[in-house]
Automatic annotation (TrEMBL):
Keywords: Cell wall, Glycoprotein, Hydroxylation, Leucine-rich repeat, Repeat, Secreted, Signal. Gene3D superfamilies: Ribonuclease Inhibitor (3.80.10.10). It is found in: Secreted, Cell wall. This is Cell wall hydroxyproline-rich glycoprotein. The keyword Secreted applies. Residues 1-26 form the signal peptide. The lineage of its organism: Eukaryota, Viridiplantae, Streptophyta, Embryophyta, Tracheophyta. It comes from Carya illinoinensis.
């Protein structure tokens, strides 16, 4: 998924660089100050900085507890986690405490790519000064301890590419200053909690887990600029309430999330959108006319769906668009520039495997007719839980319309296309 990785790497880097610059500057000062005698006179160091030591001592207890539940450390990452000088531990960064700049505290941990296997201990709650946790690409398993709620300064939480399991870790919702949440590539399952979208997060990266039960209807209340849901099993439709997301949303990746229904006209309200990828779903119906208004859109991937109708000029002439993939659908007509996209220089497109009469690499007539003869059903087919997860507003209507044991499809939520 090259698109996702490029955008994700660009986003946190700004904030991270600032914080780490600050932290490593402090760290270097600390190292310079204590470098000479830390090794042979730890005791002296302990007493001479007694004001800071209470908090660093708590951190020491936390890291020793953590070390006890690390069962594999093939790169010897934690080998120097001995003694009370936690600021010299590999992966641990200290900085002046925001509430008391005269003392140093553990402000960040970065174990990215350490390949450590183990758990997070309850004592992680003692690291209450942490602003950054980066545990990307390890083999941590189990669940996030509830004591994480004690980390009231936490700004970035990246636990991606580990083996965490269970329902969405609700404890992250209690972190008051959390801004960047990355729980990609784990094995979380069940629903995404609606409260996730009430938090002031800039990035919500939950892709490659086992989430299911539809995308919450209040998605649009979020203030995030990047939302990546890809490779989960949500099902259901893109909520029409997504228009409320217009003021912040720039990148929305819904690849391979078992979506059905049609693309809502409301997508056209997302005027800041730069990347939209809904590929590898079962989305039906036409491209909404409103998408001609997405003037910042750079990358659009509609590939591998059941889309039909016209690929119209409105989209093909979007001023910022440089990559338009609509292969593996059932489009049967193109208008204007769409008929000859090679004429747009520096433009990448993929129109293969559609039903376009003039183009090479299209589907057979038989394959096209089978789909094009079927009426488009823009209603949303929610499997499993009877639609309860789609939000209280829709639940009663669904229950009223749907006889038991018949797939739920409420006409009241079907967008009407003329
Ligand atoms: C880690 O330490 C062990 C024991 O000292 C050593 O055998 C091994 O080669 C070290 N591994 C790495 C990657 O340095
Ligand atoms: C929370 O942090 C405080 C220090 O700020 C500490 O005294 C307390 O023990 C911590 N609580 C837990 C549950 O870790
Ligand atoms: C879609 O996601 C499922 C897991 O949810 C995975 O097994 C499958 O390989 C993915 N398909 C594509 C095309 O990425
Ligand atoms: C689309 O729906 C069909 C059956 O209706 C299913 O077999 C297929 O896996 C779905 N594809 C995706 C990408 O969700
Ligand atoms: C265009 O987008 C497709 C689908 O996301 C991607 O596979 C391809 O690499 C992109 N091409 C360029 C040149 O960005
Ligand atoms: C498409 O546009 C290119 C460049 O403008 C031109 O050379 C080519 O003849 C056009 N092809 C068709 C089929 O109109």
């Amino acid at each position: 998924m090259p698109m996702a990785s490029s955008l994700v790497s660009s986003l946190p880097t700004r904030a991270l660089l600032l914080l780490l610059l600050h932290i490593s500057f402090s760290f270097n000062k600390l190292a310079a100050k204590h470098g000479h005698f830390a090794a042979h006179n730890r005791h002296h160091e302990l007493r001479s900085h007694s004001s800071s030591n209470q908090r660093l001592h708590q951190a020491y207890i936390a890291f020793q507890a953590w070390k006890r539940v690390i069962y594999s450390d093939p790169n010897n990452f934690t080998t120097n986690w001995v003694g009370p000088s936690v600021c010299t531990y590999k992966g641990v960064f200290c900085a002046p405490a925001p509430d008391d700049p005269k003392i140093r505290v553990v402000a960040g941990i970065d174990f990215n790519f350490a390949d450590i296997a183990g758990f997070l201990p309850n004592e992680i709650g003692l690291l209450s000064d942490l602003a950054l946790i980066h545990l990307n690409s390890n083999r941590f398993c189990g669940i996030l301890p509830e004591t994480l709620a004690n980390l009231t300064l936490l700004y970035e939480l990246d636990i991606s590419n580990n083996r965490f399991v269970g329902p969405f870790p609700m404890v992250v919702l209690s972190l008051p200053t959390l801004y960047f949440l990355d729980i990609r590539y784990n094995e979380f399952e069940g629903s995404l909690p609606p409260q996730l979208f009430n938090k002031k997060l800039d990035a919500i990266l939950v892709n490659n887990n086992r989430f299911s039960n539809t995308i919450p209807q209040n998605l649009g209340l979020s203030t995030a600029s990047v939302v990546v849901f890809a490779n989960n099993n949500f099902g259901g439709c893109i909520p029409t309430t997504i228009y409320k997301f217009a003021d912040t949303l720039e990148e929305l990746l819904l690849i391979n999330t078992s979506l059905t229904g049609c693309l809502p006209q409301e997508l056209g309200f997302l005027y800041k959108l730069r990347v939209l990828d809904v590929s590898f779903n079962n989305i039906t119906g036409p491209i909404p006319y409103s998408m001609a208004g997405l003037s910042h859109l750079e990358q659009l991937n509609l590939g591998h769906n059941m889309l039909t109708g016209i690929v119209s000029d409105g989209v093909c002439i979007l001023p910022s668009l440089t990559n338009f993939t609509f292969s593996y659908n059932y489009f049967c007509e193109e208008t204007g520039v769409c008929q000859n996209l090679t004429s747009r220089s520096g433009f990448t497109f993929d129109d293969r495997r559609n039903c376009l009469p003039e183009k090479p690499f299209q589907r057979s007539k038989k394959e096209c007719d089978a789909v094009l003869e079927r009426p488009v059903d823009c209603s949303c087919c929610v499997s499993g839980g009877g639609g309860a997860a789609a939000g209280p507003a829709f639940a009663p209507a669904r229950a009223a319309f749907a006889p038991a044991a018949v797939p739920v499809s409420s006409p009241s939520i079907a967008p009407s296309y003329s």
